[in-house]
Design a protein that fits this description.
47% helix; 623 residues; disordered N terminus; 3-stranded antiparallel sheet; 7-stranded parallel sheet; globular
Length: 623
């Protein structure tokens, strides 16, 4: 009996000692259903490498930020003139040829197509046109952050966090450990990569650390390809400067959206043009999508196709095609054809030489990443999937995150299709798993095989998460932060109960912000019942936010409960706290809102026109 008591005492002492040691570790309490994730005592500085149009960029004249006719700074990404000026240009340059087209139902010598192309392309790209070497003709500059986050202005901090909500990293690693590289997204790719190389050296010197972490996001993945080639040319190893490289939905092999437009143009089948294109671009519930679908038929079908072809061809051949950064988003598969189409013309020699160089960096991407790992760089990847591409190219329904195909973001992971399960007899062509007998990389959704990707041991996936809302997924951002802050976070096997390899997408940016506004709400005018309900609703939202293993039902339940009590409070405020005022019952306003009804009517009319007349214009029908 005494021996038993001694043994129990010893076990208790061990447990207490372990608990004490665990408590002494600097850690984040993610709360909810998840355990602790430790944070290093001294976290290395991290550099964010932004995606497309994520860097604040301005248009300058005579060294000053240029102002439009209303005295306002031109706004990125296109620095367009005011509506009055755009309409004036359209009337001056395009009204007559368009009128002739509509009156004669014939676009003679493509006059209308050329006029529309000139106005649209100059409107979108006129301020940031590039020369034959791939450099801006005008003074276009991205705001540079030559200091850590803690030293930035309030405006710059707000701008950074709006694109990169790294609050968790800042709170636990320190604001002095975050840096943001910036660049104009249509600038010269080789210049961008060289500046990133220099920025890494600057951060090392500014922070006093021998190595840094980098987080290439979206287009930043393309920049990372170029960066790795820069290191090769300098005969330096990436590991000399970089500790961890955490890719976030990276365009490592560009985007099929860009590649197919460069090689083939936008979709040109009549059913896609008259039924799919505009709802995809403007939104399925946008009345204007279906209005334009119907109005387009005032032009003959052949002339409409010609007009679209001329617009896109002009946009690329005279404007966007000079952006080597844009060419960096062209996938390997599409580059040879796109090169033949646009880069063989006289005057494109310098552009072609630079894009050929980048194409080689894409071909070398996997080998460069593996070499970096061999030299000691830890490489991770975070991928969204199961969202088709925007419906503007023929291959829109390939496995993707809405903007970039999965093959690009995941470094080669195979998926059968969006919402298409791998067949029961599926046999992978290869596997990059380092320990097949002991590792389980199976997608619980049955949609994707991570082992065909280059790095299955360090690649994480979010199903049903769209590319553009990745930053609104708090778990996505917590995962990236945890990887950066914890030297023991080495693979998908490190914290599977906290950050499983396969997770579910969610958008919590709005609910998190709204809850913050009500956290200190003055509840003195509320009834005891409503006060308790608000408190419990906030607790429920916090528990949901702290759960890093996403349960969509938990997310929706927390949102519904919070917004129900918030709506009631707003109603009470509008009625001066009068509880006798009737609280309106929630109704499905989709059926009462005239705009929805109008949208449904126009969509039906658009579909009827296509069903019976295909792509024929009104004059074609009459003929």
């Amino acid at each position: 009996m005494k021996k038993t008591k001694k043994l129990l005492a010893l076990l208790l002492a061990v447990v207490m000692l372990s608990t004490t040691l665990l408590a002494s570790v600097n850690a984040i309490d993610w709360g909810g259903h998840t355990p602790y994730v430790p944070v290093d005592d001294d976290v290395l500085p991290t550099i964010i490498v932004p995606g497309l149009f994520q860097s604040e960029t301005k248009y300058y004249e005579n060294g000053q930020v240029a102002l439009d006719m209303n005295g306002e700074p031109y706004k990125m990404p296109f620095f367009m003139d005011t509506t009055v000026e755009i309409v004036g240009a359209a009337v001056t340059e395009a009204l007559v040829p368009i009128s002739n087209l509509l009156i004669n139902q014939e676009d003679k010598d493509q006059m209308a197509a050329n006029a529309v192309a000139d106005v649209l392309c100059e409107t979108l790209m006129g301020k940031q046109k590039l020369d034959e070497t791939g450099h801006f003709i005008n003074d276009i500059r991205a705001t540079e952050y030559n200091a850590s986050f803690d030293q930035l202005s309030d405006h710059d901090k707000e701008t950074v966090l709006d694109h990169f909500p790294m609050e968790y990293y800042i709170e636990h690693a320190g604001a002095d450990k975050l840096y943001v590289f910036s660049y104009a997204s249509l600038d010269n790719m080789i210049d961008i990569a060289n500046r990133l190389y220099d920025y890494i050296q600057f951060v090392k010197e500014d922070s006093g650390y021998e190595k840094v972490n980098i987080v290439p996001i979206s287009q930043g993945g393309s920049v990372a390809n170029a960066l790795m080639e820069i290191y090769n040319e300098k005969d330096r190893s990436l590991a000399e400067d970089i500790n961890k490289m955490v890719f976030a939905v990276p365009a490592l092999d560009g985007s099929t959206l860009v590649g197919e437009i460069l090689e083939f143009g936008i979709i040109d089948e009549d059913n896609e043009l008259y039924c799919e294109l505009l709802p995809a671009l403007l939104g399925e519930n946008n009345v204007l999508s279906y209005v334009i679908n119907i109005v387009l038929r005032i032009m003959p079908n052949a002339d409409l196709h010609t007009l679209l072809d001329v617009v896109f061809d002009t946009f690329i051949s005279e404007y966007a095609g000079y952006s080597t950064a844009l060419w960096g988003l062209c996938p390997i598969e599409n580059y040879p054809g796109a090169r033949d189409r646009y880069l063989m013309a006289e005057g494109m020699e310098s552009i072609r030489e630079q894009t050929d160089w980048f194409y080689q960096s894409q071909l070398n991407s996997d080998a460069n990443i593996l070499k970096a790992i061999e030299d000691g760089v830890q490489v991770y990847d975070i991928v969204d999937y199961n969202k088709p591409l925007v419906h503007i190219v023929d291959s829109w329904n390939i496995p993707a995150d809405g903007i970039i195909q999965v093959d690009s973001t995941s470094m080669g992971a195979y998926a059968a299709g969006n919402n298409v399960k791998l067949p029961a007899d599926y046999v992978p062509t290869h596997s990059n798993c380092t320990d097949p007998e002991n590792h389980d990389h199976k997608d619980p959704n049955g949609l994707l095989d991570p082992c065909t990707g280059l790095l299955p041991e360090t690649t994480f996936y979010f199903v049903n998460q769209s590319h553009e809302s990745s930053a609104s997924n708090d778990v996505f951002m917590k995962l990236a932060s945890a990887i950066l802050m914890d030297s023991n976070f080495t693979s998908v096997h490190s914290y599977p109960d906290v950050f499983p390899q396969f997770n579910t997408g969610r958008n919590t940016k709005g609910i998190a912000k709204d809850v913050d506004e009500y956290r200190d709400y003055d509840t003195s005018k509320l009834s005891a019942e409503d006060k308790l309900e608000l408190e419990e609703a906030i607790v429920q939202v916090e528990a949901m936010l702290n759960n890093t293993v996403v349960d969509t039902r938990e997310v929706e339940a927390a949102k519904i409960r919070f917004y129900d009590i918030r709506d009631k409070i707003e109603w009470l405020e509008a009625n001066n706290g009068d509880y006798d005022a009737p609280v309106p019952e929630k109704e499905n306003t989709a059926y009462l809102d005239f705009s929805y009804l109008l949208k449904d009517i126009l969509e039906i009319l658009s579909d009827i026109l296509f069903k019976y007349f295909g792509g024929l214009g009104f004059s074609d029908i009459l003929k």
